Amino acid sequence: MSGTREQVFPTRMTLGVMKTKLKGANQGYSLLKRKSEALTKRFRDITKRIDDAKQKMGRVMQTAAFSLAEVSYATGENIGYQVQESVLNARFKVRARQENVSGVYLPQFESFVDPEINDFKLTGLGRGGQQVQRAKEIYSKAVETLVELASLQTAFIILDEVIKVTNRRVNAIEHVIIPRTENTIAYINSELDELDREEFYRLKKVQEKKQKETARLDEEMKIKRLAEEEKAKNENLNEEGNEQEVKNESSPERETSALVEEHEEDVIF
Amino acid sequence: MEGLFFNIDNGFIEGVVRGYRNGLLTSNQYINLTQCDTLEDLKLQLSSTDYGNFLSSVSTEALTTSIIQETASEKLYEEFNFIRNQSSGNTKLFLDYITYGYMIDNVALMITGTIHERDKAEILQRCHPLGWFDTLPTLTVATDLESLYETVLVDTPLAPYFRDCFDKADELDDLNIEIIRNKLYKAYLQDFHQFVTDVIDEPAKEIMQGLLGFEGDRRSINIALNSLQSNDIDANLKRELLPDLGKLYPVATEQLSHATDFEGVRMALANVPEYRGMLESGNLEDHFYKLEMELCKDAFTQQFAISTVWAWMKSKEQEVRNITWIAECIAQNQRERINNYISVY
Questions:
Q1: What is the number of structural domains in chain B?
Q2: For testing the chain A interface, which of B117, B130, B178 should be mutated: the one with the most A CBs within 10 Å?
């Protein structure tokens, strides 16, 4: 991992961009992590409820099947057919709505009974009508449980998918994007340092050159002066007034040397 | 003197029926059945009874409660048809009367199927074999009651029963069918009762009157209870559905038709000792079955009576229900309710 980095020019501007990116990635990571945790919590909750609902369904279905046996005991064989034929409208209906969990839309099924519709209330009028009504109630409960379970199962599947995607993102940010950005930043920093060092060296070199030059000039000047002094001595013997001028000429030379001194200190800093 | 000539026509039949009656499962056999763990065990237990190896052609995997019920019912139909073929004269008429009840069910079933445009073959399959008559398949042509009557039913024994149904039900729908069925049944019970009173000799007359009266009472109470939730049936219509028979008639019948809640039905029943307390506890249908079986058992105590055929029929039907119930309990693993069957022999 440590080897990967983005292909960028190591400039100060890119460094700024990368730093913003790292910050963004960290923020995104913490957000996604929190989302994933919220979803996982919900997911566990749903798993538990599915377990409950399934066990409940087992019991309810058993009672329901048994109540049907009671109906056939009380009424005879053809009751199922009569019921089937006399039903025209659905009494038990399902409504769907959406619930938002951390940005994920989960469908929720709600069942309701339309009390207006009661199609086979006369079935078994002469015999076993009570059993038929009872079986109807029990089966309504069974279907209710089924609807509940269906809603939970759908939520389960959708949440599972979303959690997978979110976790993949979290992992991608944590293990790919963040290290890569960090690597890039480190790379840019090292490159910039390298540049600095080169610059420093270059300046040193320049200063060295300048010092050499100054030394050389000093030497020349000295020689010149010596020569001139020699000359002046010779001339002094001739003329006293020339001495003043030589002193005036040497003062600008001293100023340049001070300027180099200042510059050098700056570079070291 | 009344039993003097009985055996000329009916001696053989009565003998056969009493033989069948001895083949009914006893309470000990029921206890054995309830001990079974699987349907295979049940089949094995049943093979040592009068049923013999009636399930031998069914493999273990295909063994279901509905198959057991079907096969057991078939045995009953066979036996009944055998008796029917051995009978003559008034006895034959009596046996025919027994089948009219099933005919009414079949007609109602056919009409229901026709309204919803079901496949004829599918409905015919579901018809009760004892209620079969030749023109049954042609019932599908009818769309309203008039044409139904004029084209098909006029030739059947059910024709007179339709007289009361013509007042308003022109179009057939589900509500009408249920009402027609109950009106027919009422007319049938009353006609049967009349027939028994006029034609059948004592002591069968008395026994049959009792049994039919019970049948009427059962229908009355059931209709009164089951129509409580429905607003489509007013007191007058309800009165038309309740048979004018039995221990409830006439006072309690009148009260039942005007009862608008559960309390009203209970008040009406409180006047009749036989049915008092029936609504207080337990399952109404169980009470009725129990009562019916007691009556049927008593019916066998009389010699020289063709009412034994009816009593045997009903007992056998109850037996098939019992076996189905036990099988259902075993199949669904509902052991605690398995003793809910009704056994009197």
A1: 1
A2: B178
Token pair of B283, please?
A: 């399952």
Residues of A in contact with B118 (CB under 8 A): 85
Give the pLDDT confidence of B254-304 residue by residue, as tens digits: 888 888 888 888 888 888 888 887 777 777 888 888 888 999 998 888 888
Percent of chain B beyond pLDDT 90?
8
Mean predicted confidence (pLDDT) in B208-231: 85
| Burial (0-12, 13-18, 19+ Cβ within 10 Å), B83 | buried
Residue B69 within any structural domain of the chain: no
Site from B110, B222, B256, B330 to mutate, A interface, most A CB atoms within 10 angstroms: B222
CA distance B169 to B146: 9
pLDDT means per 10 residues, chain A with 269 residues, are 72 90 93 90 92 90 85 75 75 85 82 74 70 85 89 90 91 91 91 92 94 89 84 75 54 52 50
- For chain A, domain boundaries: 19-175
User: What are phi and psi for residue B50, nearest 5 degrees?
Assistant: -65, -20
pLDDT exceeds 80 at position B51: yes
User: Nearest 5°: phi and psi at A73?
Assistant: -65, -40
Instruction: Name the pLDDT band for B243 (thresholds 50, 70, 90).
Output: confident
Chain A's closest residue to B186, CA to CA, is A126
Q: According to the model, what pLDDT value does residue A1 have?
A: 42
Q: Is B325 on the interface with A (CB under 8 A)?
A: yes
- For residue B33, count other CB atoms closer than 10 A to its CB: 22
Residue A170 to chain B, least CA–CA distance (Å): 50
Q: What single letter denotes the amino acid at residue B317?
A: E
Domain that holds residue B111: 88-318
For residue B341, being part of any structural domain is answered with no
Please give the structure tokens belonging to residue A197: 């060092």
Nearest to A78 among B126, B185, B321 (CB): B126
Q: Would B19 be classed as within a structural domain?
A: no
Which residues on A lie below 8 Å from B185 (Cβ)?
Answer: 126
- Cβ distance of B321 and A129 shorter than 8 Å: no
CA proximity to A228, closest of A252, A214, A246: A246
- CA nearest to B183 within chain A: A126
* Tokens encoding B247: 């221990």
Nearest CA in chain B to A129: B226
Residue B287 domain-assigned (yes or no): yes
Is B321 near chain A, with CB under 8 Å? yes
By percentage, how much of chain B surpasses pLDDT 70?
Answer: 94
CATH number given to A19-175: 1.10.287.3240
